[in-house]
Design goal:
Blueprint lengths: L9 H8 L21 E4 L5 E4 L6 E6 L5 E6 L5 E8 L13 H8 L12 H8 L3 E6 L3 E8 L3 H10 L8 H18 L3 H11 L25 H12 L5 E7 L3 H12 L18 H4 L2 E6 L6 E9 L9 H10 L6 H7 L3 E9 L6 E10 L1 H5 L1 H19 L2 H16 L6 H14 L17 H8 L7 E6 L7 E2 L6 E6 L2 H6 L31 E6 L2 E6 L9 E9 L7 H16 L2 H9 L2 E5 L6 E8 L3 H12 L5 H16 L6 H13 L6 H9 L3 H13 L2 E8 L3 H12 L21 E7 L5 E9 L3 H26 L6 E5 L6 E9 L4 H20 L3 H16 L5 H13 L7 H11 L2 H13 L4 E8 L14 E2 L3 H5 L3
Parallel strand pairs: 4-8, 9-13, 17-21, 22-26, 22-27
Antiparallel strand pairs: 1-2, 3-4, 5-7, 5-8, 6-7, 9-15, 10-12, 10-13, 11-12, 14-15, 16-17, 18-20, 18-21, 19-20, 23-25, 23-26, 24-25
Helix pairs in contact: 1-21, 2-5, 2-7, 10-16, 18-21, 18-23, 18-24, 20-25, 21-23, 26-28, 26-30, 26-31, 27-31, 28-30
The structure holds zinc ion (ZN).
Length: about 950
């Protein structure tokens, strides 16, 4: 299952992935006076957990007789119940003879137990009762699920059996090897993974220098190593109650949860196994300093200074990593990031750290996306960063930064919002492996004191001998190929001369100033109405406001700001202009976003299928001040150098589109097919060539002048706040226009359409959608309830039974008033043509299966969707989503969820069966499919009978 260990930051991922939508400013929230204090909650065994004063849940820590540590979380408002169990074993413990074994075992554990032998049993059970489950392997192995509370006990019974008597039958070994292989295949051209592999090579004999995912080659019978035997041995050797940590979350009272924990988990065997974490020491005299040249699959241009650091997780309460990352990544005036940007050398700089990346070692790295000019100055930029580190050593270890970071973390902790139980359980069960029990919730926020010594200890490791300088671009002199990953590399020693040159001062540098946006007031003023009401309707501007229904104790709010100009993206050229505008808005103002983020506010572009929509979230106190800045920078003219720099970045990221995970590309192409205002890659690239900076400035001015401003606010605002925000943004413009949702495909009965594209990757992908035109809420309700059953059948057949691919999904796929179903599969096994036939056959055969569905099973599916639809939102953001979706589609009664709930309640089994026949097997249905033909199989492709191909999407869009 998903291996979550290796992800790029969202912004970098976006920049290298070719996606024109950006997530930025994720991360910390903050401010000054703390109204509440962290609370320690007593647990019956005497263990206290430090939790937020805003956290109403009850916690209890217990240790079962078999030494299994358990944290129980009782949350009367939880509608689903969850559990997560982590095991202190992971990829660093793989035997050399079977690399990927920890991950493989994670897969095999789901394949039946003595009392529940059906390999699909757990998943079927989950699907029937509104559940979901996942697992991932990194330095740990973590298993988790959530389910409707009515079936929590049985779920715990099944789940706990994995750790008592898994069958691990030889007959499933081959199937799951293929699943693991497909998972690897999906990711093999992902640069983040390949670079990780190169970095590990530098660690020589350290166990991190292994292949962690596994594939058919690494997981196989060898002369002295039989896979199945090794699997059993690995389980016996590493799975023991004393190395496991369990978290249970439900609405039950604590005493009842304690009984559940005892009943189901106290008979997991305790083998008293020592922690298997690696202790191998790295000799840095031999290790560094190195330069790695890496040729990526994308067109990214990066300079990365990666320092290998000792695992300092035990310093979590004094936060040396966070302290230094704060200084290193700052874009306040005079800092390297600010100056390098001003010189046109840098697009993005961020600092990333993981002290347990390699188990007993980790890394802290400065990642810089460079411009063409920056690429010519890599030695100088490296020198500037090394000099900045010296400045920090001399003057930066200052208590004032500690105060600022602590304020920010305190505010974040004191007003902590809930996340869903599923993720929370997983997060806590991992944290239990790393932090003292008291701190498993608070560890990321806890900043007990200013500890000069721990910061200096870390600074002493940010030195050349622990440094790897990464030069990443298409132009690198790199010939070596990697085993198991695409991407070439070369490793060189850094010369004495080069390191000497770092001593020469190049530019004067300054340390950052303090933050201007820390909130000062946490006064609460949520509006009484919970459904948005129009509070402003003037020429050129409209605004709606609602208070939160569930989170009135939060001094936060969510704002959508929309500049509505429905013809802003009619042509490919306009789409590029629009994309450039957004990109410049983000990249040119990183210092502002960073400062806002540290003060607990986030800004990001949203909903790219519309015109310009920005989302502003977080503490409301300083939001009006931030909005004034946004107003200024949106209309600030772009300079010629800024234009050239960002245009280059945009073109490179567009050209890198085909290196994204293939199934994600298919989904993007499907959106491009269905929506106007979106264009294909080659068309966008051609349009990009023709644009000038003057055109961009004219475009921005005109688009702003012709826009109707719309504001939707939910949370801690009063009418005066909303009016103030709207007034700040409206400026001089007074264009009034009525709302127009951008045109999309209107499927017609009998249409059978395909978009076929050749793709440079090895795998092939099919993304098929089936629509019942104008089926509206009744149809959408049927699709929703059906999706629970259909997903399971599709997944079981094509992935579990036939092992055709790792990414295999079926889901509801509504399109405006049309109800629909979607089926997606990426396969290293079948050609595109075979995929098409296989999925089509499945759709035919599934009908018979659906006819046999019992009333009882139908009711379960229906109930679990109803529970999900009526669930209380976990936080403000989730609450806001219900309304913002309606608002963007101009459904101003804000009642689409209520209508869907009514339709799901009224649905019968016969309705649902009828819906499937109509949508998939009748002349009333319409089909659209995206086919990506990979390179591994033959290229000839014949469409299914009755299908025709769309060649040009722009022409197709004119039919909308
Ligand atoms: Zn996996």
């Amino acid at each position: 299952m998903k291996n979550k260990a290796f992800t790029l930051s969202a912004l970098t991922a976006a920049i290298v992935s070719g996606s024109l939508t950006f997530t930025f400013l994720s991360g910390c929230t903050g401010n000054t006076l703390s109204s509440g204090k962290a609370v320690t909650k007593e647990a019956s065994s005497g263990q206290k957990l430090i939790v937020s004063p805003n956290d109403q849940r009850q916690y209890q820590a217990i240790t079962l007789p078999n030494q299994l540590e358990v944290v129980l979380v009782s949350d009367p408002t939880a509608e689903k119940s969850s559990a997560a169990l982590s095991v202190d074993v992971g990829w660093l413990n793989d035997p050399k003879s079977q690399q990927g074994l920890a991950h493989f075992l994670e897969h095999m554990l789901f394949m039946g137990t003595e009392r529940y032998p059906d390999p699909d049993g757990f998943m079927k059970f989950m699907d029937q009762h509104g559940g979901s489950r996942n697992a991932f392997t990194n330095q740990l192995t973590n298993y988790m699920f959530e389910i409707n509370h009515s079936h929590y006990e049985e779920a715990l019974d099944r789940f706990s059996d994995f750790f008592k008597s898994p069958l691990l039958l030889p007959e499933y070994v081959d199937k799951e090897r293929h699943a693991v292989h497909s998972e690897w295949s999906l990711n093999r051209n992902q640069d983040g993974w390949a670079q990780r592999k190169v970095a590990a090579k530098l660690l020589a004999e350290h166990p991190a220098n292994q292949f962690w995912i596994g594939n058919l080659e690494s997981l196989a019978d060898k002369d002295n190593s039989k896979l199945h035997n090794e699997l059993l041995a690995f389980y016996q050797k590493h799975y023991s109650a004393n190395r496991m940590k369990l978290v249970l979350i439900s609405s039950d009272p604590l005493p009842q949860m304690q009984l559940l924990a005892q009943r189901f988990f106290s008979d997991i065997e305790n083998k008293n196994i020592e922690s298997p974490r690696p202790t191998a020491q790295i000799d840095f005299k031999k290790f560094g300093p190195k330069r790695v040249h890496y040729v990526p699959n994308t067109e990214s241009q990066l300079l990365r200074l990666e320092f290998t650091i000792d695992n300092n997780l035990s310093d979590f309460a004094t936060k040396p990593n966070k302290f230094l990352a704060h200084l290193l990544s700052s874009e306040m005036p005079g800092t390297p990031a600010q100056q390098l940007k001003a010189m046109g050398l840098l697009d993005v700089l961020y600092v990333d750290y993981d002290p347990a990346w390699y188990g007993n070692y980790g890394h802290l790295q400065i990642v810089m996306a460079l411009t063409e000019a920056g690429m010519q100055q890599r030695p100088a930029i490296t020198a500037i960063m090394m000099q900045y580190l010296d400045l920090i050593r001399k003057k930066g270890v200052d208590q004032k930064y500690f105060q600022e970071i602590r304020t920010s973390l305190n505010n974040q902790f004191n007003f902590m919002e809930k996340t869903d139980g599923f993720s929370y359980a997983a997060k806590l069960s991992s944290a239990m492996q790393y932090y003292p029990l008291a701190s498993i919730v608070s560890a990321p926020y806890q900043y007990d004191k200013f500890d000069k010594a721990s910061i200096e200890a870390l600074l002493a490791q940010l030195v050349p001998e622990r440094l790897t300088v990464w030069h990443i671009s298409q132009q690198e002199p790199a010939k070596q190929k990697l085993n198991y990953f695409e991407g070439r590399y070369a490793i060189a020693d850094l010369s004495e001369q080069e390191m000497q040159s770092w001593q020469q001062p190049l530019i004067p540098l300054s340390l950052p100033e303090l933050n201007r946006f820390q909130p000062e007031s946490f006064a609460l003023k949520h509006a009484k109405n919970n459904i948005p009401q129009k509070v402003l309707d003037e020429a050129g501007v409209e605004a709606w406001l609602a208070g939160s229904q569930h989170f009135t104790d939060q001094p936060r709010g969510q704002l959508l700001l929309q500049w509505h100009q429905p013809s802003a993206k009619r042509t490919a050229k306009e789409a590029i202009l629009h994309g450039m505008w957004q990109l410049l808005f983000i990249l040119n103002n990183q210092a502002l976003w960073q400062e806002a983020s540290a003060a607990g506010m986030q800004v990001q572009p949203e909903a790219e299928e519309y015109d310009l929509v920005l989302k502003l979230t977080g503490f409301t106190d300083k939001q009006p001040a931030l909005v004034e800045h946004i107003n200024t920078i949106l209309s600030t003219p772009v300079t010629a150098p800024q234009f050239a720099q960002t245009m280059d970045l945009m073109q490179r990221s567009l050209r890198s589109f085909e290196q994204q995970v293939q199934i994600r590309q298919a989904s993007e192409i499907l959106k491009t097919t269905l929506m106007s205002g979106r264009f294909e890659l080659d068309v966008l690239l051609a349009a990009a060539q023709t644009i000038t900076v003057d055109e961009l400035n004219t475009y921005i001015g005109q688009t702003l002048a012709q826009s109707q401003l719309r504001v939707l606010a939910q949370g801690n605002y009063d009418e005066a706040d909303v009016k103030k925000i709207a007034a700040a943004l409206k400026g001089q413009q007074k264009t009034s226009r009525s709302y127009q949702v951008s045109p999309s495909w209107q499927p017609e009965p009998g249409q059978r359409l395909s978009v076929v594209r050749s793709n440079p990757q090895a795998d092939s992908t099919l993304f098929r959608t089936q629509f019942l035109p104008n089926a509206d809420y009744a149809g959408k309700a049927a699709a929703k309830v059906l999706s629970g059953h259909l997903h399971q059948a599709f997944f079981n057949q094509l992935r579990t039974e036939e092992q055709l691919g790792y990414a295999v999904q079926a889901f509801e796929f509504p399109l405006n008033q049309h109800a629909g179903l979607g089926f997606a599969i990426q396969s290293p096994v079948l050609s595109a043509e075979q995929l098409q036939q296989r999925v089509d056959l499945f759709l035919q055969q599934y009908s018979a299966k659906l006819e046999q569905l019992s009333e009882q099973d139908f009711t379960k599916l229906q109930q679990s969707q109803l529970l999900e639809l009526q669930r209380m939102p976990a936080n403000l953001e989730e609450e806001f989503k219900t309304f913002s979706n309606d608002w963007l589609r101009n459904r101003l009664n804000f009642d689409s969820r209520q209508k869907l709930i009514a339709a799901v309640s009224a649905l019968t089994l016969a309705d649902m069966q009828h819906f499937y026949r109509q949508t998939v097997m009748s002349e009333h249905s319409a089909t659209m499919q995206i086919i990506l033909q990979g390179q591994a199989k033959e290229q000839a492709l014949q469409l299914l009978p009755g299908f025709s191909a769309i060649d040009d999407l722009a022409t197709f869009h004119q039919t909308f």
